[in-house]
Design a protein that fits this description.
Elements: H1 2-36, H2 40-44, H3 62-65, E1 86-92, H4 101-108, E2 109-118, E3 124-125, E4 128-130, E5 134-138, E6 154-156, E7 164-166, E8 171-185, E9 190-193, E10 196-208, E11 213-216, E12 219-230, E13 236-239, E14 242-251, E15 257-260, E16 267-275, E17 288-292, E18 300-304, E19 307-309, E20 313-325, E21 328-346, E22 349-359, E23 362-367, E24 370-372, E25 376-380, E26 384-389, E27 391-394, E28 402-407, E29 410-414, E30 423-425, H5 432-437, H6 456-460, E31 465-466, E32 472-473
Parallel strand pairs: 1-2, 2-5, 3-6, 4-7, 5-8, 6-8, 7-9, 8-10, 9-11, 10-12, 11-13, 12-14, 13-15, 14-16, 15-17, 16-18, 16-19, 17-20, 18-20, 19-21, 20-21, 21-22, 21-23, 22-24, 22-25, 23-26, 24-27, 27-30
Antiparallel strand pairs: 28-29, 31-32
């Protein structure tokens, strides 16, 4: 009986294994298929651009900096003002680092009020966490053109911390003040998470790993502002934020401005000067004056009457629409590079070492510009569309003559113009006043960028000729048209 029972149990186990085997094989096949099947949804909806570093300034916790901090105002921007607080608060905080006087003054200001900073004993030290609409004004005024004199009201950030953080939906106005973060570390001087920053007569001195101004959404409007950013990161990063600059000077940083346009109003850069450090491409990130990068929202950027000098790439466009007019790009290796998107360049002057405009993909419209000194005006790949017309070129390397055989081993220089190349070579000297407005402003010696063969004046008067290599040969008594007959 026991033997019969054991036999039945063995048969049952064998039958179970026999039934389960196809199911196990099916699960294994499904798992392999899911790992190898392409994800067409990801292909149709790719992630945002990964062309730059993805670490962002962290969301700073002001409560950690000031454990007893009580924000007081919690209503979102646009709600009725809560009672309490002072309309105008005057704080004299100079020479008292660590006391929290200027930070406490921010809490005393009612929403929509004004904080006036006085600093008789030196810079005010503190981190201002702005979570309500307000205005911050430095007492005594500030002229950005004289800021090296050191007489302006200065708010200095503690080491490794921001100068100012702005909460979402909050409007902050800054006037007549200098913000300093000499040891910023991984903190930007101004950090905005969806806020609105409006500044007039503002100065920023920043040294650290991050940008002087970082805006994640919202808007930044700077007028009559000067920024000295000693950093490898761009001086200003507008990630999904609308950036409007007017009469602003930015210097010191390896890269100037980086914009990732959102779906809001187009950004506008007007009458701005960007001065780079002329760092070569083989050191660290690319040195770019204005970088416009892409994400799912196809934004627009307008550049007018702006000077961008001292960067490996003056302007780089990656998947957005950029319009540049009446501007100057100088002391660069490549004037403008279109990696993808749209670029319209008109009525501007570009002085570059290798290429004036490089188009890898997308569409570029280049009209009525002046190109100076480069070895190649346009560099277009097969995926790109380039419409060029009305451009002028001064280049002693690009605009050299061909040597045309006239009689036996006697040659004459001949300049040819191709109507389909989108530009015409100029054979006169490059205007001196134009040079002074661009490279000359940085102390570079003048170069006329015009090429004339040796003794070309004598040749035009009928004396001598050239050999096939362009060397001048004195014809002696054979002059004029006789050079080409005997």
């Amino acid at each position: 009986m026991k033997t019969f029972t054991l036999a039945l149990s063995a048969l049952a186990i064998a039958a179970g294994l026999t039934v389960a085997a196809p199911e196990v094989q099916a699960q294994t096949a499904a798992r392999v298929e899911s790992q190898t099947r392409p994800n067409f949804g990801l292909l149709l909806d790719p992630p945002a651009s990964q062309s730059r570093r993805q670490n962002r300034p962290r969301h700073w916790n002001y409560g950690t900096h000031r454990p007893g901090w009580n924000p007081g105002y919690q209503a979102p921007y646009g709600s009725p003002f809560t009672p309490g607080g002072e309309e105008i608060v005057l704080v004299d905080c100079g020479g008292n680092p660590g006391t929290g006087g200027v930070e406490a003054a921010v809490q005393r200001v009612r929403p929509g009020g004004t904080l006036v900073i006085r600093a008789r004993g030196g810079a005010c030290v503190g981190w201002l966490n702005v979570d309500k609409p307000m205005t911050i004004v430095g007492e005594g005024g500030f002229d950005p053109r004289r800021w090296n004199e050191g007489s302006a009201i200065t708010l200095q950030a503690p080491d490794g911390l921001p100068c100012i953080t702005v909460a979402s939906g909050v409007r902050l106005e800054l006037r007549d003040v200098v913000l300093a973060s000499p040891r910023g570390g991984d903190a930007a001087c101004i950090v905005s998470y969806g806020g609105q920053i409006v500044a007039n007569r503002l100065g920023i001195r920043h040294a650290g790993d991050e940008a002087a101004i970082y805006a994640d959404g919202g808007a930044v409007d700077l007028r009559d502002t000067i920024i000295d950013a000693q950093t490898i990161a761009p001086a200003i990063v507008a990630d999904g934020a609308t950036l409007n600059l007017w009469e602003t000077v930015i210097s010191g940083s390896q890269s100037g401005i980086e914009i990732v346009p959102g779906n809001a109003d187009p950004s506008r850069i007007d009458s701005v000067t960007l001065s780079g450090t002329e760092t070569p491409n083989n050191f660290g990130p690319r040195s770019i004056g204005l970088a416009v990068r892409s994400r799912r929202d196809y934004g627009r950027v307008e550049v007018v009457n702006t000077r961008i000098c001292g960067f490996s790439e003056g302007v780089a466009v990656e998947g957005a629409s950029v319009t540049i007019s009446g501007s100057k790009i100088c002391r660069s290796d490549k004037g403008a590079v279109l990696y993808n998107g749209e670029l319209t360049l008109s009525d501007s002057r570009i002085r570059a070492g290798s290429v004036g405009v490089a188009v890898q993909s997308g569409r570029a419209i280049v009209t009525n510009n002046t190109f100076v000194g480069m070895r190649e005006v346009f560099d277009r790949e097969y995926r790109a569309t380039l419409d060029a017309s009305g451009n002028r070129v001064w280049s002693d390397e690009l605009c050299r003559p061909r040597w045309e055989a006239r009689y036996r081993d006697r040659y004459a220089p001949q300049w040819y113009q191709r109507p389909d190349q989108g530009y015409e070579c100029q054979f006169t000297a490059y205007p001196r006043d134009w040079w002074d407005e661009m490279d000359g402003a940085y102390g570079d010696p003048y170069d006329d960028y015009s090429y004339l063969p040796d003794n070309y004046g004598r040749f035009q008067q009928g004396d001598g000729w050239y050999d096939s290599s362009g060397r001048y040969v004195d014809g002696g008594r054979i002059r004029g048209e006789d050079r080409w007959r005997r």
